[in-house]
Amino acid sequence: MASNDWRKSVVYQIYPKSFNDTTGSGEGDIPGIIEKLDYFKTLGVDYIWLTPVYKSPMNDNGYDISDYYEVNPQFGTKADLENLLEAAHARGLKVMMDIVINHTSTSHNWFVESRKSKDNPYRDYYIWKDGKDNAPPTNWESKFGGNAWTYDSATRQYYLRLFDVSQADLNWENENLRREIYEMVNYWIDFGVDGFRFDVVNLISKGAFEDSDGPGKEFYTDGPKVHEYLNELNRNTFGDKEIMTVGEMSSTTIEHCLKYTNPERNELNSVFNFHHLKVDYPGGEKWTFADFDFIELKRILMDWQVAMDEGGGWNAIFWCNHDQPRIVSRFGSDDTEENRVRSGKMLAIALHGLKGTPYIYQGEEIGMTNPKFTRIDQYRDVESLNAYSELKEEGMDNARVLEILGTKSRDNGRSPMQWNKDRHAGFTSGEPWMDIAENYGNINVESALEDKDSIFYTYQKLISLRHEMDHFTYGSVVPHLMKDNALFAYERVYNGETITVIANFREETIPYPDGLDTTGATLISNYGDRAGELRPFEALMLHGQ
Ligand code: TEU
């Protein structure tokens, strides 16, 4: 039964380009999402979140928007989007759209005008600066590698682009720009959208433009006016409406996220933070090999859980998305089918007992793995291709670079959805825009639905429990075993009752720990029965009175 309370809701994230192709183009489309609405109902989710489907040159697969008001023809038409909303609403499903308001494509008409002259009315919609001694204005680094400024010969100035060269940062100091953004958000609210995910929205307020020893994040992350801008956005658009909002907060802090999500501040409902997904970035370095730091993973998860619970904030809880490797390959084990299924279920149980709004990324519910590409021509993502060039230029051998991309790249989460055993996993009748993982004959939706012991039914059960039991929504969070090298454990306490979650992250049998009450009734387990010890990747959710 779907939930009307956004705090009891579960969100399914769709990367449309890789979800379901109905035209044979080799790329997913909006009619392909409509085809699968009953699948979402079977799973039991409440919202579907589409990553951007607006007009875009697709240099960053839609996060480079050239027209906020038009649907990218490769995904379909605006009528298709209307049909999707209508068909979703008819099933009690809500639709969350992804809005990118930190930057636009350099193909957006605002930027085309802005670059024409220094006195163009749109000049100040973006951030233009003179260089210094033929060098960029500051030494800030782009998140996709290289310097964050690009020189434009038309007016002999640099423009700021924290991401790709084709993604120019908007100047939120400009009141006319802000007003145009609010008008656009209201357009999509009037269109019938039920929620928004705001892309890197904590970067919209840039502070001082100074050099730094590091990449410059301290000047634009959670910037000086970010809360003011979000409150103004709220008041001018969704603030008085039943619209669920979530902000993607890059490199943020708990303190800021308590402010972003404090209901009394009228900013956003909830936030994504990514610190728990950097525990395999030694020294903050993504492009290297490293086992994930399990103790640090638990510390970060629980710090955020307890702080946001006690401070009245609200987390998005998630393992992966279109920017992350597949979680079963990253924090679980995909070396055998038994380990993949057990650890895939374990990760689901470990996460879905936490406080916040759970997000399930397409394919996570069937335990899709990293596609294990072996050639650079299989990669599509601008960040991956930039990293490949940079690592090779630094002298790293090709095989090593490919190994690193194969574990860390965003492409890992973007290989097409695996629907069935048919050609191209039933994703397309054409040639897929990106190779499909070779294991689709075994890992696909059709097989998962036929197998009552599949990972899919673990997610279905967890979603049902969250809808049924207020403990998950309102219960306090009590961490346990924070220094244990194998077990992740916590309690949710509500109305004198306790839900205990315990997950063995190791392929070893571990004795039950002392000091944790594991006498409760089993709500869900990935082994289906109880043993006198915790078996490899065993996870339990217990309900004690
Ligand atoms: O992601 C922002 C972001 O922080 C990640 O891209 C991260 O910086 C990157 O993966 C390095 O590890 C959002 C979108 O989710 C992403 O797809 C876009 O590429 C990016 O913003 C720019 O819009």
From TrEMBL:
Domain (Glycosyl hydrolase family 13 catalytic): residue spans on this chain: 13-414
GO biological process, one term: trehalose catabolic process
InterPro entries: GH (IPR017853), GH13_cat_dom (IPR006047), Glyco_hydro_b (IPR013780), O16G_dom_2 (IPR045857), Trehalose_TreC (IPR012769)
UniProt xrefs under CDD domains: AmyAc_SI_OligoGlu_DGase
Cellular component GO terms held in the UniProt record: cytoplasm
Coiled coil: none
EC number of the protein: 3.2.1.93
GO molecular function, one term: alpha-amylase activity
Alphabetic keyword roster: Glycosidase, Hydrolase
Domain of life: Bacteria
Pfam families given in the database record: Alpha-amylase
Family membership noted in the UniProt record: Belongs to the glycosyl hydrolase 13 family.
Protein name: Alpha,alpha-phosphotrehalase
Species for this entry: Salinicoccus sediminis
